[in-house]
Amino acid sequence: MELEKKPAAPAGDETVLAESPLVLALICVVCGAVAGVLLPLLTHGMVRLRWVPFKGLAELLTSVPEPWLTLGGAGVGALLGLLVGFLAVHESLAVRISDERIVLTVRDASREFPRRDVASAHRDGKELVLLAPDGAELAREKSDLSWPRLAEALTAHGHRWEPEDPHRETWRRWVPGTPGLPEGADALLKARATARKRDDADDARELAEELRRLGVTVRDEKKRQYWRPSPRRA
C-alpha cells in the first residue's frame, strides 16, 4: 500500500516510502460499508433473543423498511470507515531516505537523522528501529511498510540494515522493583505501564524519551515492557 519513489536510487537521489492515503481510506470505507450492509442481519438476530444489550435500539432499527435500512447502514458504515481511514493515515509512518540522511514522519511531525548518527536499522516486530553507533536507540516507530523494500532502499543509499536486533540478548523484562535500573527509571517504567493501560501513546512515547535520557531503552511486547541499558542521551 506504500507509495515509492525509486526503490534503489543512485547516489544523490532520494527514496520516499509511505502508505498511500487513497488506498488506506478506500480500504477503510469498503470495510465500513460492508459492515453496514451486514447490520440488518445483526439487528434481526438481536431482536429474536430474549435478552441482549441495546435490544430496544435493534428493534428500532428493524422497524426501518428495506432497502433503506441496508442503504442507511452502508452509508453510515462508509462514513465511519472514512474517519478511521483519516486516523490511519495520520498515524502512518513515512520514510525519506537519501545518502546523507533518514527522515521519519509520523503524526505530521518529522525527525531527521544524519547519516553519521545512524549506525544501523532493523525490524523489531512491526517497528522500525534506528540505532546510533554507541548502541542507543535513535527511533522506534510502528511501520506497515514493506520490509523488503525498506531494507532495499536503505542499503541502496549506503545505510546498514541488520536482519535482526543486534542487542536482542540484552533485553530484560521489567517488573516493579527490577534491580540494576538507574535511579528514577523504575518510577518512569511504572508511569509508562499506566499510560499504556490508558492507551495514551503520546505519554508513553514521552516517558520512553525520559528513560533514554537515563540510559534505559524500552520496548513493548503485548502488555509487557522490556528494557536494556544504553548510553545516556542528552
Architecture overview:
Helices cover 41% and strands 25% of the residues. It is an alpha+beta fold and 234 residues long. It has two domains: 1-166, Roll (PH-domain like); 168-234, no CATH class. Strand 4 (101-106) and strand 5 (109-114) form a beta hairpin. The protein has helices spanning 21-47, 55-62, 68-91, 147-156, 185-197, 201-214, and strands at 2-4, 14-19, 94-98, 101-106, 109-114, 120-124, 127-131, 137-142, 161-162, 172-173, 216-221, 224-229. It contains six helices and twelve strands. Strands 1-2-3-4-5 form a five-stranded antiparallel beta sheet. Strands 8-7-6-9 form a four-stranded mixed beta sheet. A three-stranded antiparallel beta sheet has the order 10-12-11.
Overall pLDDT level: 81
Tally of contiguous helical segments: 6
Portion in beta strands: 15-25%
- Tally of DSSP β-strands: 12
* Proportion of helical residues: 40-55%
Chain-wise SSE layout:
Elements: E1 2-4, E2 14-19, H1 21-47, H2 55-62, H3 68-91, E3 94-98, E4 101-106, E5 109-114, E6 120-124, E7 127-131, E8 137-142, H4 147-156, E9 161-162, E10 172-173, H5 185-197, H6 201-214, E11 216-221, E12 224-229
Parallel strand pairs: 6-9
Antiparallel strand pairs: 1-2, 2-3, 3-4, 4-5, 6-7, 7-8, 10-12, 11-12
Helix pairs in contact: 1-2, 1-3, 5-6
Describe this protein with a few key phrases:
234 residues, alpha+beta, 2 domains, five-stranded antiparallel beta sheet, disordered N terminus
Task: Offer a concise description of the structure.
This protein has 234 residues and is of the alpha+beta class. It has helices spanning 21-47, 55-62, 68-91, 147-156, 185-197, 201-214, and strands at 2-4, 14-19, 94-98, 101-106, 109-114, 120-124, 127-131, 137-142, 161-162, 172-173, 216-221, 224-229.
